[in-house]
Input
Amino acid sequence: MAATPRRCREARPTTLLALADELLEEIFLRLPAAADLARASMAGVSFRRLIADHRFLRRFRAGHLPPLLGVVPSRHRQDDPTHLAQPPHPCAAAAITLAGFHAADFSCSFLPSPKRWHRRDLRDGRVLLSGVPHGGRFDCRVLVRELAVCDPLYRRYVLLPAIPDDLAASVVRPLPFEPFLAPPLAEDKEGMSFRVICLAQCATKLVLFIFSRGGAGAEQWRSITFDNWAALIAGDEPETCWWPRMRHYAHGSFCWAFYPKGKLIMLDTRTMDFSAVDLPPGSNQMQVIILEAGNGRLGMFMNEYLTRELSYVVLRNDGHGANQWQSEAMFSLPLNQRNMLMGVAGGYLLIHGIPETTFSFPWAEREDVKVFSLNLKTLQLELFFASKYCVMDGHLFAGFPPSLSPPTI
Output
C-alpha cells in the first residue's frame, strides 16, 4: 500500500516586526525621505527605539539630504519671524513639524540677557550668535569676544571662551570681523562636534581664529595669519579689497566671490589654506551662488542683477591642466518681479522675488513677497512661501524633523 504523502507545513509570512534589527535598519536606510522614516517611527515602540538610536540616525543622515524647512532672518528681532515652507511645496510637511509645541527657538531666548545677542550664522542645526555689550550697538567691524553656539530645537547653548588676548592682539581695526560655523574635522559618536571660524580682514593681512569642540585639541582657540592673501586677487593692496559679505560652501571649502577682481577665493576647511580660481567672464554684473556639482566639481548659478535670466555653469578641467567654466543650463524666472538669489540648501536653490510695485504702496497694502525654489534634481521651479517680509539676507535652514534630530550640543 502506497504511503500517504505528508502535507508540507505552510510557512508563516514574515512581518516587519519579526525581522532582526539589522535587517530593519537596512530597510529603513533605503526609505527615500525623512518624512517616510518619521512615519515609520510611529508604527510601533520597537521601530521608534531603533530609529531613535543615534548610531542609526547618523547613518540615515549621511545618506539623505535634510529637507529645506525655511528661512531664518539674519536680523535678531522678535517681530521678524521665521518663514517655513508652505503647502503645496514638498518640504511643507517636514517644515510643519517645527511649528507649534515643537517650534525651534531661533531667537535663542534661553540665552542669558537674550536681547543683546546677534545672530551670525546657522549650520547643521546650530545657531552662532555674538554678544553686543550692554548699551552698545552691533558693529561688524568689532572683534567679538563673546560667542555662543545654540541648539534651537532642544534649547541648549554653550558659551565659547573668549579669544585669548595674545591672539586678539594680532588684529588691529578689522574691516570686517566675520564669525561662522564650520563642520568638524571628524564627527564624534554623539554628533556634537563643531568648529567656529572667525575671519578678520586687517589693513595688511588676514587672520583666522579657529575654535574646535570635540576631537583632539578641543576647547581652544588658535590663529593663522595670512600676510599675502591679496596676491590671490591679482596682487592688489589688501586695504583696497573689501571682503565679500556673501559666503558659500561646497566640497569642504568656504567660498567668496570678489566680483570686481573676477576671482573666487576658497578656504579649505581641512587644511586651512586659501586658493583662488577665475570667475566666468562678465560675472562682475551678476549675482552668483556656488554649490556642489558632481564628481567633486564646483557649480555656479548666475543671474544678471534683478533680471529673469538664470544660468548654471560647472568648473571643468579643459584637458590641458586648466579649469574653465562650462555652461550647463539656462532658465527663465517668474515675470513681474525682481529676482535675488538667496542660496542653496536641502537640494534647492532659493530665489527671492520682489514685486515691481512693492515700494509703491504702504506696507499693509503691498503685494506679498514670493520666494521660489528650484529643485536641483528635477529643475522644477515652485513657490516656497509668500510673506509681507523681505528676507533676502536670511539664513536658509535645512534639517530633519524633531523626532529624527538628536541634540547637537
